[in-house]
Structure formats: C-alpha cells, structure tokens
Design brief:
The chain has 11 helices and 14 strands. The protein has about 290 residues and is α+β, with helices and mostly antiparallel strands. It folds into 3 domains: about 45 residues, Uridine Diphospho-n-acetylenolpyruvylglucosamine Reductase, domain 2; about 120 residues, Uridine Diphospho-n-acetylenolpyruvylglucosamine Reductase, domain 3 (2-Layer Sandwich), CATH 3.30.465.10; about 110 residues, CO dehydrogenase flavoprotein, C-terminal domain (Enolase-like, domain 1), CATH 3.30.390. The strands form 4 sheets. Strands 4-5-10-6-7 form a 5-stranded antiparallel sheet. Strands 11-12-13-14 form a 4-stranded antiparallel sheet, with helices on both faces. Strands 1-3-2 form a 3-stranded parallel sheet, covered by helices on one side. Helix 9 packs antiparallel against helix 10 and helix 10 packs across helix 11. The radius of gyration is 19 Å and the shape is globular. The termini are far apart.
C-alpha cells in the first residue's frame, strides 16, 4: 500500500467536514474491510483516511423508539447486529440473513454504515432492508437529511451521497405482523457472494396478500424492487399460477446481468425459482417478523 495519513475526528459532523473539500484522495473508513482490501489491491490510493472509530458512541447503539421503529447506528458492527436481542425480536429476517453474510471475522469488524455505503450489488443486507422499508439518516457539515434506502445506490460501487456526506443511522420501521424472508443462491460456500438474492416482505389479509415488497440483488447493478411482480401478488391468493405469473413479470421488468457467479440466462432461471421459494418461505413463518 502507498503511505497515507490517518485522521480520527471525534464527531460524525467533524468527519464529514474533513471530506468537504472534495479532494478525491481523502476517504472515510469505518470497519475498513472493503477499503483496506481495495488499498492493498491498488484500486484505491488515498493520501488521507478519515477514521470514524472515535465518533460519538450513540452511532454504535441499537434502540427502538416509542413508535416501534428501530434505530441502528452506522458504527454498529454486523456481529453486534446479528447478536442483538432487539433485532431478533423485531426483525429476525435480519439476524438470519447475517448468519450467511461473509464470515464471522468480517462481521466482527464491518459496520452497518460501511456495508451500505460500499454499494456492491452482491451484498445481502441492502435488499432485505429495502424490502423492510428502511431509511438512512445522513450527516453533512451543515446538518442532516433522511432518505429511503432504496435511493442510496446509484450503480456498481456508487451511491447518491455527496462527497461530504456520511451515513449516520439506519431506521427500520415497525413491521407489526408482516412476514419476511431472504433467500440467496451461491455457487460456492453458503457465505459467499450470491449469484442471486431475493428479499420478500408480505402483509397478509387472511389468505390474500394485502401488500408485497420484493427486492433482488446480485443479478442487477443495484438492489432492485420488482414492482410488476409485487402488483401481481397484491390482492391475490398465493398459489402456483400466481407465483408463475409473478416470476415471469419479474424476469420481464429487469435487465439481468451476468458475472463470475453466473450468466444472465442462469440468473433469469434462478429468479423464476427463488422468487416463488422466497414468497413461500415468508408465508411459512420461518422468516416471519413478529
């Protein structure tokens, strides 16, 4: 690696201020699992790293507000998120997703904010969180703003954040009786990058679907909602013909891309199969939120 200067501001806003000049050689770092790897490979050569490890402790907390929404600080590690009894009680689909997200060594260091900001389309948490209707709070030198998580990713390793903006908090709304599931298909070990990830959140009305949110990853350049497939499920009873129509609609509405984990044709077939499986997994209650 090339030499670099390390700065450790004490507040999230101060950290954002150090990025404000727009110097491309200055980069923020949280857990560092992605940034340090990219530096070792020579993909990144920052002259200065702004470490977030010394910022306010509240950004390492997990809490629930009076309305039932979860507030997850950007500096919470993925392991802390996985072990949190609050997360397990309110949104167990997140806990189950984390168990096959990379490996425990990475989860012990990687942070929620860094995971989301890295914007690799193969990551497991973004499709789950988008399906759950999550928002993020973003800090800049002048204040804060909130945006839906589905508006964060702009392309491969690209976000809509300004250079001087940092993810401060993740907010997951109360799920009540919604049912959720996340399924991934990997071509190697269970904790590898997926060839396809499918997240489903259903709100039921008796035996019919009142509302549905479906998000895929790894087969598109950003986590992508399948609005046409959602529309087919909404107001319908879940049966084989409905799931077949939803699968065909999903394939028609997105541009599937191939990569080292599978060709575009292979991923289209995976989407047909895994969309139906994810819907049925949510209905079965194995991944249901409480």
């Amino acid at each position: 690696m090339t030499p670099f200067e390390l700065l450790e501001p004490r507040t999230m806003r101060d950290a954002a201020g150090l990025l404000e000049a727009g110097d491309a050689s200055v980069r923020p770092v949280a857990g560092g699992t992605a940034v340090m790897l990219m530096m070792k490979l020579g993909v990144l050569r920052p002259a200065r790293l702004v470490s977030l490890r010394a910022v306010e402790k509240r950004y390492s907390d997990i809490s629930i507000d009076t309305g039932g929404a979860l507030h997850i600080g950007a500096m919470v590690t993925l392991s802390a998120l996985e072990r949190s009894p609050i997360i397990w009680k309110e949104v167990p689909v997140i806990t189950r997703t984390l168990r096959t997200l990379s490996n425990v060594r990475v989860r012990n260091v990687a942070t929620v904010g860094g995971h989301l900001a890295h914007a690799d389309p193969h990551m497991d948490l973004p499709p789950v969180l988008i399906a759950l209707g999550a928002h993020i709070s973003v800090v800049n030198p002048k204040g804060e703003r909130t945006l839906p998580l589905e508006q964060l990713h702009a392309g491969y390793l690209e976000t809509t954040l300004a250079r001087s903006e940092l993810i401060a908090e993740l907010i997951v709304p109360r799920q009540a009786l919604r049912r959720a599931a996340y399924l991934k298909c990997t071509t190697r070990s269970a904790d590898d990058w997926p060839a396809l990830g499918v997240a489903v959140v259903l709100e039921m009305n008796g035996e019919g679907v009142r509302d549905a949110r479906i998000v895929i990853s790894a087969a598109t350049d950003i986590p992508t909602r399948l609005t046409a497939a959602e529309g087919i499920l909404r107001g319908a009873r879940v049966d084989d013909p409905t799931l077949r129509r939803a699968g065909e609609a999903a394939i028609a509405e997105v541009d599937i891309i191939g990569d080292a984990h599978g060709s575009a044709a292979y991923k289209r077939e995976l989407l047909r199969v895994y969309l139906a499986r994810a819907v049925r997994a949510a209905l079965a209650g194995d991944e249901a939120t409480k």
